[in-house]
Amino acid sequence: MHQQREVVVCVDAIGGDKSPDEILPGAAAAVASDESLRVVLTGPEEVVAPFAESHEHIEAVSTAERIDMDDHPANAVRTKKDSSIVVGCRLVRDGAAHAFFSAGSTGACMAAATLHMGRIKGIQRPAIATILPTAGTPVVFLDVGANADCKPQHLVQFAHMGSAYAKIVLGAVDPSIALLNIGEEPTKGSQLTQEAYALMSEEVPGFVGNVEGRDIVSGSVDVIVTDGFTGNIALKVLEGLSESLLGQVKDSLTESALNRAAAMVLRPSLTRLRSRLDPDTYGGAPLLGVSGVCIIGHGSSGRSAVAAGIRVAAQAARGGLPSAIGETVGARS
Amino acid sequence: MHQQREVVVCVDAIGGDKSPDEILPGAAAAVASDESLRVVLTGPEEVVAPFAESHEHIEAVSTAERIDMDDHPANAVRTKKDSSIVVGCRLVRDGAAHAFFSAGSTGACMAAATLHMGRIKGIQRPAIATILPTAGTPVVFLDVGANADCKPQHLVQFAHMGSAYAKIVLGAVDPSIALLNIGEEPTKGSQLTQEAYALMSEEVPGFVGNVEGRDIVSGSVDVIVTDGFTGNIALKVLEGLSESLLGQVKDSLTESALNRAAAMVLRPSLTRLRSRLDPDTYGGAPLLGVSGVCIIGHGSSGRSAVAAGIRVAAQAARGGLPSAIGETVGARS
C-alpha cells in the first residue's frame, strides 16, 4: 500500500446535533481507513479523554467551553477562548494539526478560522463552498453564505479558490468555471454579474461563461461561482425541494398495501438513488481563503458524514490547499 | 348555473414551442368550460381564421408579423407592430379584450405590455410572478426575472402586487407575505433585504418576516417576495431539480424487469404526484404592475396549460386585478 504523508486533523467532538455520539465513531472510522491519519479531538475532558485512551491514532485536547448554535458567532469566538472550535482553529494555526473539522455553528467556525488561522494573503473575503452531487461530476458551488453582498472582484477570487479545491480534493484536471446568472449571454443579469463576467473572462483560466439555475445540478462544469446571498438561497432551495420531493415520492409508495408491496421490490434501487444524491458523500463545506484547512459539516451529520468530512480535510491538507490558493491569488494581485 | 360576467381573453396563437397545435385546442377547451368566456386569437390569417370560423365563442384577428424567441424583445416590440404579441396587448389597451395570454417570448410580452398597456400609476417596476405548487397552498413568488437589480421600495410594491393576485386569483383571505432571505432574523441578509425588511414591516399588511430558500416549497405563506435575480435563480433551480430528481426516480423504477413490474402498480400514484407538482395547474406567470391583465405561459405549454392560463387570465380580469393593484399602491404613495 502506498504510504501517504502523515496528517493530523483536529475534530470538534461537540459540534452538531448528534454530537458527540456520531462524531466519535466518525473519527474512529476515518483513522481506521487511513493509517497515516491522526485525529485530535477537542471537547470536554469526560467526552474526549476516555475515547482517545481506548482508540489508537486518536488524541484528546480538553476544552472547558462550548459555543452553541444560538450564540452570536463573532462574540462567542471572542469570549469563549477555551471552546472546542476556537482551540481547534488555534491548533491548526500553531502547526499542531493540519486541518480542522466541525459540524457545529457555521458562523462560529468561520469567525474562529478567520480570526485565528487568518486570511490568506491577497484574499479579500473567505467564502464557504458546498460540493453538490449532480447527474455528472460533483460541482463546487460558492459562496453559499459567507458574504451576502459581493463586489465583482470577490467573485473572481471565489473562482480561483473553487478551482483549487476542485483540483486538489475532487481531482479535476483544468477545472471549468462558470458564473451563475439569469441568462447565458454576457450582457445578461445584474450589474454585479455583468461586471464579474467581464473580469472573469480576463482573469480566470477555465472560465466558460454563464450558467443558469437549472444547470447547478446538471454537472456540466466543475465550479459555479455566485454571491453568498444567491448561493445560500439556491442551496436551501435544493435541500428543501429534495427533501420535499423524495418525501412525497415515499408517501406515494406507501399510500396503499399494494403500493407498499411494490415499493419493497424497488427499495434497493431507491436507496442507491438516495445515497447517490446525498451531499454528505463529499464531506461538508470547506471554508476557503483562510490560512489553514477548515471543513464545516452539516449540523445533522451522522458518523459516515463525519468520517467523510475528516477524510476530505486530510486530503485538502495533504494537497496543500491554502498554499495553492495563495499562489493563484498572489500571482494575480 | 351562476352566470359570470362576460370576459374576452386575447390569446397569442403562435407563441410557444407547441404553437399553434396546442394553443388552439387549449383555447377551445377554455371556452367550452366557461360560457361567459370569449377568446380572440391573434396570429396569421391561415392559422386563426379557419379555427375561429369552426368554433363558437372564438374570434380571430389576423397579424402579419412574428416575434421569435431569439429576437431582442424591446427592439422586436418596437419594430414588429403587426405581431401577435403587440396586437394582443393593444387590443387590451383599447378595451377590445380584457386580458392577454401568450406562451411566447417572456421578454417580448413584458416589453409589449409595458409599452402598450402602460404601467399602473404609482408602480415603479412591473414584475413577473410565478405560482408554485407546494405541500400546502400554492405560493405567489415574485419577481422571477423582470428586474435583476432592485431597490427596497420595489420589493414593497412586489408585496402589494403579489397580495392582490393571491386574493383575486387564488382566493387567499388576508394573504400572508414573506421576504426571501438567508436567515430569519430582521438583521440577516444583504443590504437590500435588511432595508426591505424594515420598509415591509411598516408598509405591508400581512407581512410575516423572512423565509429561507427551503421554505419556498413548504407552503407556509401566500406570497414570497424577492428581487428578480434571486427569484429567477431560485425558480430555475426548482425546475431543474424537479426534472432531474423525477427523471432519476423514473430511471430507478425501470432499471430491471422486476422494477418495471412493481412500477406498473405504482404508476397511478406517481402520476397523481406529478400532476400535483405541475406548475401549469396555476396557468402561467402573471406580469403584475401593467394596466391590464397579462399572463405568460411556459414556452412548452401544452393544451391543458394553455386552457389553465386562459382561465386564470379571465379570473384576474373579472376580479379587476389591475385596479386592485392600483388602489393598494395609490393609497400608499
Structure commentary:
The structure is a homodimer of 333-residue chains. With 333 residues, chain A is of the alpha/beta class. Chain A has two domains: 1-123 and 289-333, Isopropylmalate Dehydrogenase (3-Layer(aba) Sandwich); 131-279, Isopropylmalate Dehydrogenase. Chain A has helices spanning 23-32, 45-53, 73-79, 84-93, 106-117, 152-168, 191-203, 228-253, 257-276, 303-318, 321-330; strands at 7-12, 37-43, 58-62, 99-102, 127-132, 139-142, 177-180, 207-211, 223-225, 285-288, 293-296. In chain A, helix 3 packs across helix 5, helix 6 packs across helix 7 and helix 6 (152-168) packs across helix 11 (321-330). The longest helix of chain A is centred in the C-terminal third of the chain and has 26 residues, at 228-253. Chains A and B meet through helix 8 and helix 9 of A and helix 8 and helix 9 of B.
Task: Provide a quick synopsis of the model.
2 copies of one chain form a homodimer. Chain A is α/β, with parallel strands linked by helices. The first copy, chain A, has helices at residues 23-32, 45-53, 73-79, 84-93, 106-117, 152-168, 191-203, 228-253, 257-276, 303-318, 321-330, and strands at residues 7-12, 37-43, 58-62, 99-102, 127-132, 139-142, 177-180, 207-211, 223-225, 285-288, 293-296.
